[in-house]
Amino acid sequence: MSDAANVVDRTPSERVDVCIVGAGPAGALMADKLAAGGHDVVVLEAGKRFDFESRLRRMKRSIRPAYDDLDVWDMGGPRDDFNSSGEIFYPLNHKRVKGIGGSTLHWGGRVARLPEKDFEMQSRYGLASDWPINYDDLQPYYARAERELGVAGVDDNPFAPPREQPFPMEAFPRSYSDSLFEQACEKLDITTHSVPQARNSEPYQDRSACVGYGTCQPVCPSGAKYSADVHVRKAESEGARVIDQAAVQRLEHDDSGETVTAAVYRTPDGETHRQTARQFVLAAGGIEIPRLLLLSESPSHPDGLANSSGTVGKFFMESPYIHLIGQLDRRTRQNLIGLGTMESHQFYTPEEAEPGSFKIEFGLGAGPTPAQLALEQRTPLEGMLDTMRNPTSVGQWSENARNLGGIEWGDDLLANIREQYGNYFSISAEIEVLPRVENRVTLDRSTTDAYGKPIPDVSWNRDPHAERTIERAFEVLESIVDNLDADVREKHRSVLWNGVGHHSGTTRMGTDPGNSVVDPQLRTHDLTNLYLVSSSVFVTSGAMQPTLTIAALALRAADHLASKL
Amino acid sequence: MELTRRDALLALSAMGIAAGGVAQQLGDRGTVSAEVTDGTVAVAEVVFPSSVSGNREFVETYLDGRTEGDGYSLEEIASLLDTIDREAKRSTGRSFTDLTPSKRDDVLREIGAAKAYPDPDGTVPQRIRYYLVNDLLYALYSSPTGGELVGNENPVGHPGGREAYQEGPDDE
């Protein structure tokens, strides 16, 4: 489709009410609601518009070992260059997608409302800061967001905040694997419950029900999993204009320094354009929003736009995950579906400040798939390289012995797959971090991207609060496994410090312009017509998936902005 | 365990190839030469388990889908099969397709297909591993029949519905 890039009109529109930067869930929902309200909307998106029909091909890329994860959604390269300067390497481009639909193209689709305590961390625990809004403020928007995205669920979670109505769709039934862990949890008085999913358990608003491809992350070929291209299409049908491959370089403001006048963007033909508008919304996520503000520095805003507080880019948060993975003496029926159907939020709202919140997820994709076992056999040379990296592994040496004759196929391979597939389990926990000033997004002025602009630098460091929470969470996970009615053949712990793509906190919300970037309506303190709609405004992040809260904030911001136009 | 055309169509789907057009063409073959089909079936008989039957029908449908699907080069396959055949004649004096599966196994290993890293743009052994060995294994183990051989009737990449994950293993 490279020719198409040259024939699409990417020149600016005239007389625009709202210019939105970013076509992920926040930008798409705002564009849809504002366009439906009769306002002239232009959305500028740095990434491509992907053909829906290409999803099967993209799924293949996600399964075949010859492809890198970044190939699935064409991420990486000079456009997406970044630096990671913290103690934990942050693989930014594995944690996001640029394109129409944004990171919802590759997300897992779990959705949850943030419980009350996440808005009140200072009041309850003396930690971090309270949000300037609370659960009651967001509750009606959470309900709307569940209808917009299409959420399958059932109200069986005693730890969830209050609901006002049933979920739009029935929940996905629990898995066979869940039943093994449910028994262990019952012995320990740990309550388990279903998982709300932005994924169709039945046809919903012209989208298919889930048909079980099993590749939700990173691509759903059926479209049953919500992705924000859904609302981009709705917005366009309402008259919004959405321009892909329009990479915004900076925002310009008027002489007073109080009003944004234009978004300057580059297109594939090498041209630079200026999109003017009455109001501007940045909806480009927790990395690119602070970066764009910092890139928009000017004489009247020498530290970057909307940065009089000096907090733009600071207080970056992610969601570390821990996993307890192993094998049982029996079949666990993994890799038969791409979602998870059981969680426990019992440890989410602790009595004391520490250990902090964690959320338990019971996995359904543990261990290698049969196709992976067949295709990812290691050649002798690769095996020796593995051994050099990990010389004390006895398993690696025996693996090498088996590899000497080359890979297996035929009956030998079948026997090998039968031996290795089928008994794995995994239990995971999403871990709360606290906002810390040293975790931040800055500009790396030593390196430039495809457009000659300084690349983002992510500094991500271990959080002592999270470390103490991880210890407690592992104790709970181990106790569950110890209480299984099965022999555990092996188990090991792993900690995914670099998280799962939940970047937040980098332009936080508050009432004091001295220590926050946006007000409770998500308007920047410093500029009268600039709104930031993203998880970047989160004050704290809890240990829940952020997308439903992003969607709720976008719907609330759309209501507010519509009232101003 | 018998492989069927349906398995091949589902495997193609898992490979990102919309197989609707292929289904319509099932009675109207002709794009893939008999030599390519014979050669690919001969490889499949080595890399597939001996308990699997129906290889020819599976491979025919699969190759048709490859032609129809994503511009995957049959010339590449034909060229790689030629190379394998030359190696067979050099080492045994007979065509690859005329050898027993055991002898064919030897030829594929002699040519380096079992020790090469699979790379679609790599050396001949690397491409044999990628385009023939791995593609056939992928097609098999992403099809329901291949999955059932190892206890997974809805392999990843196959849209096999939402019942399998709820059901316990067969032996319970």
Describe the model.
The complex is a heterodimer of chains A (565) and B (172). Chain A has a domain at 371-421. Chain A is an alpha/beta fold and 565 residues long. Chain A has helices at 2-7, 25-36, 55-63, 121-125, 135-149, 176-187, 229-237, 285-295, 370-375, 380-389, 394-403, 410-420, 464-482, 547-564, and strands at 18-21, 41-44, 83-84, 241-243, 247-253, 260-266, 272-276, 279-282, 321-328, 343-344, 358-362, 424-431, 440-448, 454-459, 488-496, 530-532. In chain A, helix 2 (25-36) packs parallel to helix 7 (229-237) and helix 5 crosses helix 14 (547-564). The longest helix of chain A has 19 residues, at 464-482. The model of chain A has no long low-confidence stretch (mean pLDDT 94). Chain A contains 14 helices and 16 strands. Chain B has 172 residues and is mostly helical. Chain B has one domain (5-157). Helix content of chain B is 56%, strand content 0%. Chain B contains eight helices and no strands. Chain B has helices spanning 5-14, 20-24, 34-47, 55-68, 74-92, 101-110, 124-141, 144-149. In chain B, 47% of the residues are buried. Mean pLDDT of chain B is 83; it is low at 19-30.
